[in-house]
Design a protein that fits this description.
Layout: E1 3-4, E2 10-11, H1 16-35, H2 43-90, E3 98-103, H3 109-126, E4 130-136, H4 139-152, E5 158-164, H5 170-182, E6 191-196, E7 199-201, H6 205-209, H7 211-215, E8 219-231, H8 234-255, E9 267-271, H9 272-275, H10 278-286, E10 288-291, E11 295-298, H11 303-312, E12 317-331, H12 336-360, H13 363-366, H14 368-398, H15 400-425, H16 432-450, E13 458-459, E14 465-466, H17 472-500, H18 509-515
Parallel strand pairs: 3-4, 3-6, 4-5, 8-12
Antiparallel strand pairs: 1-2, 6-9, 7-12, 8-9, 10-11, 13-14
Helix pairs in contact: 1-15, 2-8, 2-14, 3-4, 5-10, 8-15, 10-11, 11-12, 12-14, 12-16, 14-15, 14-16, 14-17, 15-16
């Protein structure tokens, strides 16, 4: 993990070992391009090159748009915001009180104590009273919190309210914690910090975030940069860092539109008047979706998407604070591959469930750029499969040289993208190009599978909840339709690619009429 400069940007720290691995990869790619047989002018290759070229121009142009926007936000827009907020803080402005909504469930003692230590330190640094509403599901966590606060924060003006949930699920814990806060006089402009029980605040987070609400009266919520602390396989750490680096870039691009695409549940700050509204609380507790196939079903996870959507419907201004950082602690127990699968399933499901209804609000309500980002998420899951499909089809008919060329293309292009992401990671990592493609491909596959199974959910934390899809004829029909639609759309995509590759002929109107028995 790279070193952060005073302005919040990550400084690139290059070690000899990391540089050697990246240079070795660059040399391998160049050697492969130079020495392996070149059939770029063959008919089969020209089709692959054309498709990859067109898709590449579109996808990489969109990617570069995010990069340029993120740089504009980081170096042109946000420094002015930070300068004004620092001046306001230096003038003596402080909020009257800070509220924390913290949820935890059978968390490790050392993690809980580090989380609480970061909260106490931040509250001490800003010098204003604080209240923590802690949503718990087990006495184990309550004992740890009570012991720590009595020992380390006994001289601090920090009030802790323990709220034991009476139903399973994180959403219930959040709802009960917010209802508790609403009974303790949360003022309209009081900042309310939403945190998970495995989130550790970096020093200075509150100072960097709180003045922004006073500077921008229309600002209703903000979220911060995030990096993982992973206890598990090295590749898992690299994969999560890669995702968070991409997030850091994309969120800055979004923030240029005074909106974000999610208010991350790990660490976000809300204006007090929103979080005590019954509609806001009820949305978290019982958010649902009406789907043509699955009917009405409630969400298990994705509370951060629910809070975001509630504010989005009200035209709220939201912000990303790139120089404020929190760390999330990840203990990988059991199979890291299974953990990766469950995470991607949960993240993709949350995105698909909330993306459709946000798109339905329209570009005027959402803002055109953010609206198009939501649309692009749904397009990209299909276009990401076109290249692999075409490469496999052409390989089957023209030989392994096609697959060889495609693999070189993948490594070379992802290596170029990784050179940019290294700046956000603050270090070099030769695994980034491979993880970048693997993440893209698996993400597309999971989304295609999940889009027809939006009601199927699993939340491995807080009791390993899973959705009950019912039984009987209706459930059997729903499962059949989900399988049918998945296969149908994949076959259509495969046929489209095969027709383009010249391996199939596009059906004519005459053949369609004959197939349909219309004479």
């Amino acid at each position: 993990m790279g070193v952060r400069a005073l302005d919040g940007h990550r400084r690139l720290v290059i070690t000899a070992g990391d540089a050697y691995k990246v240079l070795l990869l660059v040399g391998f790619v160049l050697l492969a391009i130079i020495t392996l047989p070149n059939r770029i002018y063959d008919v089969e290759m020209s089709k692959l090159v054309f498709v990859l070229g067109v898709l590449g121009i579109w996808r990489y142009a969109w990617w570069m748009t995010h990069f340029v926007r993120s740089r504009v936000y980081a170096y042109k827009v946000f420094p002015g915001i930070r300068e004004k907020s620092e001046a306001l803080w230096a003038s003596g402005w402080r909020p009257s009180r800070i509220h924390f909504m913290l949820t935890t469930f059978r968390e490790r003692r050392d993690t809980t104590e580090k989380v609480l230590a970061s909260i106490v330190r931040e509250c001490r640094s800003v010098g204003v009273p604080a209240r923590i509403a802690l949503g718990t599901g087990d006495p184990y966590d309550e004992v740890i919190v009570a012991e720590y606060i009595r020992g380390a924060a006994r001289n601090e003006d920090i009030e802790v309210i323990l709220v034991r949930q009476n139903q399973p699920g994180k959403r219930c814990a959040i709802g009960l914690a917010l209802r508790s806060l609403s009974r303790h006089l949360v003022m309209d402009n009081d900042p309310v910090v939403f945190m998970d029980g495995d989130t550790i605040l970096e020093e200075g987070v509150l100072r960097k975030c709180l003045p922004l609400f006073a500077l921008h009266p229309r600002l209703q919520a903000l979220t911060t940069d995030e990096m993982p602390i992973v206890f598990g396989p090295k590749w898992m750490r690299s994969w999560l860092e890669l995702r968070f680096c991409q997030r850091h870039m994309i969120m800055q691009s979004h923030a240029l539109s005074r909106k974000v695409i999610t208010l991350t549940g790990r660490m976000s700050v809300f204006r007090g008047k929103n979080v005590v509204e019954e509609g806001f609380i009820r949305t978290i507790e019982a958010d649902y979706l009406d789907n043509w196939l699955w009917g009405r079903f409630r969400f298990l996870s994705g509370d951060d998407k629910s809070t975001w959507f509630w504010l989005l419907t009200r035209g709220a201004e939201m912000l990303y604070v790139p120089d404020a950082l929190c760390y999330t602690v990840e203990y990988i127990v059991g199979s890291a591959g299974d953990r990766m699968k469950f995470n991607m399933w949960r993240w993709s499901g949350n995105m698909l469930r909330n993306g459709a209804r946000a798109i339905a609000l329209g570009p005027r309500q959402v803002g055109f750029f953010i609206w198009w980002c939501l649309v692009d998420q749904r397009i990209a899951m299909w276009t990401s499969l076109v290249g692999p499909f075409l490469a496999l089809i052409l390989t089957a008919f023209a030989g392994p040289v096609i697959l060889q060329a495609y693999l070189i293309w993948i490594v070379a292009t992802r290596l170029l993208l990784s050179l940019v992401l290294f700046q956000y990671a603050g270090r070099l990592d030769a695994s980034f190009p491979f993880l970048l493609y693997l993440n893209q491909l698996l993400n597309a596959i999971v989304k295609v599978y999940a889009i027809f199974r939006l009601a199927k959910q699993r939340w491995t934390n807080r009791g390993n909840q899973s959705s009950e899809l019912g039984s009987g004829r209706l459930a059997a029909f729903q499962l059949f339709m989900a399988r049918y639609l998945t296969v149908f759309y994949i076959v259509v995509l495969f046929m489209f690619v095969a027709i383009y590759a010249g391996l199939m002929e596009a059906p004519s109107w005459t053949s369609l009429r004959l197939a349909l028995g219309l004479g």
